[in-house]
Each structure stands twice: as structure tokens, then as C-alpha cells.
Specification:
With 259 residues, the chain is α/β, with parallel strands linked by helices. 48% of the residues lie in helices and 14% in strands. The chain has a seven-stranded parallel beta sheet with strand order 3-2-1-4-5-6-7, sandwiched between helices. InterPro entries: NAD(P)-bd_dom_sf (IPR036291), SDR (IPR050259), SDR_fam (IPR002347).
């Protein structure tokens, strides 16, 4: 299927590895030029070189912190008129809510709610004027089924979801859609970090925990960044203009509900 994206430009945040990289690669495969971001320059540049060599698209790699005004300004200078925006940022640490300070909450809200809103604010009007725009927020399955040790993430990402639910119905008239991808257990560094926290608190060996969690998923495995990226690319395509304000859960069937 031709997704109608060749020659377009995308900003993909936190995309040197993991799910962000999966999205960047899937878009590059469709001929999309990229601005990719991450904090670690070496990893980011390796990813940029790989994508350029494999798909021949233009890639601008900007090392920095997308959760700061300076980091966002650098990205927007490199790509002031993106056709696609993929919001992504590392999740806050797991833990017990009794231990979290106001500062912990503010960091979580800044990274996982306010930063995406600022990037949407900076790009959505141009998309509307050009009559094409796709915004995808990478949030978490915890938005739909909260995880007790991920309270900071639960709260911040749910706040972003509520905000988007309103504006996504206003922008679609101009062929600008805003949706979210809700990853469940994907084989990423984030999953490993969460497992390490659980293993430490329970005393269960890390590898045993990993095997049990994979076997306990209806799919019998964890997701891959490649299949996550494919879902992102479709939501960004010209075939997905009638999908907006939605939260697509990718969890291998772990959530047991019907809605």
C-alpha cells in the first residue's frame, strides 16, 4: 500500500532507539524526510546514518532535550513546517506515589504532557493552512489500564489524552488528525527498566520475570519496534484522514475489555 507520504517532512522525538526509532524508520521507508531528536548524540547520529544509507531520505539529527524550550526551538528551526509530528519522551521513573514530590510531578507533566502540547501549538496552524497534518502522540497502555507503580506516567499521559480529545475534533476539518499510540509491553529499554524495578522489589530473578511476563501476554511475546512503527506510519498516511482523537492500544491483547 502506498501511504502517500513520499517527500513529506516529519519531526520524530526521542527517536535514536526504541519505539521512536521504529516510527522514524517506518516513515523513512515511505519516503519521508526526518528531523530526529535524542539526548545522546552518538546514538542519534548512528541512527541517522543508518536511515540515510538504507532509505536515502534526508535526515537532520539534533541532539538535545526536547522537554526544554531550547531543545524545542532547535528542532523547530530545523523543521518549521512539518507535515508530521510524532511526540515522544521517556517516561518518568516507577515508584510509590508516597515518595513523589511536587518537583517529581512537574518533571513528569513537563515531559509527557506539556512538551507535546507545546509542539502541537507550534506546528498545528501551519498544518491546517496547508490542509495536511498528522500528529501522533506516543503515550502508554497505562492511559487505558493504569499501572500502580507508574503513577507519574499514568497522570501526565492521561492529561495529554484529555487535552487532545478536544482539539482533535477541531483540526480534522482541515485534514489534520491527532491520535495516540498506546504501547503495552514492547521490547525496549523502558520495559527492561520497569522489570528491574519489579525484580528488585520482589526478589524474582530478572530473566525469570521477563519470561513469565512474555508468556502471560495473550500473544505470548513482547511487541517489536518495527510493528509499532508500522502502526505509526499508517496513522500518518493519506489513508487515515478519517481517524482522529483516537487512542490505539498495541498490547498483544493484554487489555481484556471490549472498548
Amino acid at each position: 500500500m502506498d501511504l502517500g507520504l513520499s517527500g513529506k517532512w516529519a519531526i520524530v522525538c526521542a527517536s535514536s532507539k526504541g519505539l521512536g526509532r521504529g516510527c522514524a524508520e517506518a516513515l523513512a521507508e515511505e519516503g519521508v524526510n526526518l528531523v530526529i531528536t535524542a539526548r545522546t548524540a552518538s546514538t542519534l547520529n548512528e541512527t541517522a546514518d543508518f536511515i540515510r544509507d538504507k532509505w536515502g531520505v534526508e535526515v537532520k539529527a539534533l541532539a538535545g532535550d526536547i522537554t526544554t524550550p531550547e531543545g524545542r526551538a532547535d528542532v523547530l528551526r530545523a523543521c518549521p513546517n512539518p507535515d508530521i509530528l510524532v511526540n515522544n519522551a521517556g517516561g518518568p521513573p516507577p515508584g510509590d506515589f508516597q515518595d513523589w514530590s511536587t518537583d517529581d510531578w512537574m518533571k513528569a507533566l513537563n515531559a509527557n504532557m506539556l512538551t507535546p502540547i507545546e509542539l502541537i501549538k507550534a506546528t498545528v496552524n501551519g498544518m491546517r493552512e496547508r490542509k495536511f497534518g498528522r500528529i501522533v502522540n506516543i503515550t502508554s497502555a497505562a492511559v487505558k489500564a493504569p499501572i500502580d507503580i507508574l503513577g507519574l506516567s499514568n497522570g501526565a499521559r492521561a492529561g495529554l489524552t484529555g487535552f487532545v480529545a478536544g482539539i482533535a475534533r477541531k483540526t480534522v476539518i482541515d485534514n489534520v488528525t491527532i491520535n495516540a499510540l498506546l504501547p503495552g509491553p514492547f521490547d525496549t529499554d523502558r520495559l527492561k527498566s520497569n522489570f528491574e524495578t519489579v525484580a528488585k522489589s520482589t526478589g524474582m530473578p530478572l530473566e525469570q520475570l521477563r519470561k513469565e511476563r512474555a508468556a502471560g501476554n495473550p500473544a505470548g511475546r513482547f511487541g517489536t519496534a518495527e510493528e509499532f512503527g508500522a502502526a505509526c506510519a499508517f496513522l500518518c498516511s493519506d489513508k487515515a484522514g478519517f481517524i482522529t482523537g483516537q487512542n490505539l492500544l498495541l498490547d498483544g491483547g493484554a487489555f481484556p475489555g471490549t472498548l
